[in-house]
Specification:
Length: about 375
């Protein structure tokens, strides 16, 4: 197992390099940039639509050849020296390969630089926003597993029954409905849309949170998190439920279950004393992956829909503003977390079932 772990750890470096290289290369051809953001502010223009769609006759803001003043949309009439100062401020006065090399060296030391537009280091911003995203991921994981595992076991035991058929319909609907669409529906129904105004639509706590007592803080937090968590749980529990059901059905049909029943063991003893551990192998080992999936999904969509100030919302705004230090910094963190979590999942497999030996397989 030790050799396998070392191989997996060694593969993290080239994998991260490939991810960052591909992303950096794509950005070189992306329309718009922080220099144009400042130019738009100076000239009173709003070019956000063109930046996202690629509209307009613009030259790539990463090109460092030729006259600076003629390479940015809206820069006509501005002092070329001002454009050069902006390029130097954002680091675009250097060749692309040099910027990429410096970025890799800094990222290896977890130095993500400073945001172009927030006047704060990217690492501080990530640490500031991460609790919101982690909070979503943890609660989604706990609640979805608390629903999925008992429901999946019940469906496996009563396979083909009316209960199984009706709950399968609910599960399929939950899986098919996009999370963001369900979130919008909840807002319309319960957050002051067109019907009821029961839940808040901004933040994870109220403005007077610090003045509340501990019981009131817990209630206030739950009040704010109800709709975001309900939105994500609907889509996240469906896969785990079906996985649990199918895993239990496969184990129930095996010979050792028939033998246990023949010895006179109760159905509950057979189910939870023999079947449970083997059937839950794939479910338990998938917990790290499920967490990272919930973490990413919540960060990307739900934080924007419900105006939660987490990593996803910050990353989305950074993409719109072309705040590249935040974009690449969050990408690096997410990629590293995903690779480490994948290794952790394999370790959990061996912990749940010692018969699994990854040393005998190729990475």
């Amino acid at each position: 197992m030790g050799a396998y772990i070392l191989r997996r750890l060694a593969l993290i470096i080239p994998t991260l390099f490939g991810i960052m290289l591909l992303s950096f290369t794509v950005v070189q051809f992306a329309p718009g940039g922080p220099v144009e953001q400042v130019i738009a502010q100076l000239t009173g223009q709003d070019s956000s639509g063109d930046r996202l769609t690629g509209g307009g006759n613009e030259v790539n803001s990463f090109d460092t050849t030729g006259d600076s003043s003629g390479r940015y949309r809206g820069s006509q009439g501005l002092d070329p020296e001002l454009i050069k100062k902006l390029e130097k401020q954002f680091g675009f006065d250097k060749p692309a390969y040099q910027r990429f090399g410096e970025m890799l060296w800094n990222y290896a030391r977890f130095d993500f630089g400073e945001s172009f537009f927030r006047s704060e280091t990217v690492l501080n911003l990530i640490l500031e926003k991460m609790p919101v995203s982690i909070s979503l991921g943890v609660w989604i994981l706990l609640i979805s597993y608390a629903i999925s595992i008992p429901l999946g076991i019940r469906k496996a035991v009563s396979d083909g029954s009316t209960f199984d058929i009706w709950t399968s319909g609910v599960v399929i609907v939950g899986y098919a409905v996009p999370g963001f669409l369900f979130g919008i529906l909840l807002i319309v129904l319960f957050a002051g849309g067109s019907f009821l105004d029961w839940f808040p639509l901004r933040g994870i706590v109220s403005d007077n949170f610090d003045d509340l007592s501990w019981p009131e803080k817990i209630l206030d937090y739950a009040w704010h998190m109800t709709l975001p968590i309900a939105t994500l749980v609907l889509s996240s529990f469906a896969t785990t439920t079906l996985l649990t059901k199918n895993s239990f059905i496969d184990e129930i049909k095996k010979q050792y279950v028939v033998t246990a029943r023949a010895k006179g063991l109760t159905e509950r003893r057979v189910l939870y004393g023999h079947v449970f551990r083997n059937a839950m192998l794939i479910v338990i080992a998938g917990i790290p992956g499920a967490f990272i999936s919930a973490f990413f999904t919540g960060a990307l969509l739900i934080e924007n829909i419900f105006t939660l100030d987490g990593l996803g919302r910050m990353g989305y705004e950074a993409v719109l503003k072309r705040d590249y230090p935040i974009v690449f910094g969050t990408l690096y963190i997410f990629s590293l977390m995903t690779l480490v979590i994948a290794l952790l999942s394999d370790l959990i497999y061996t912990w749940v079932d010692p018969r699994i030996d990854f040393d005998k397989r190729e990475v």
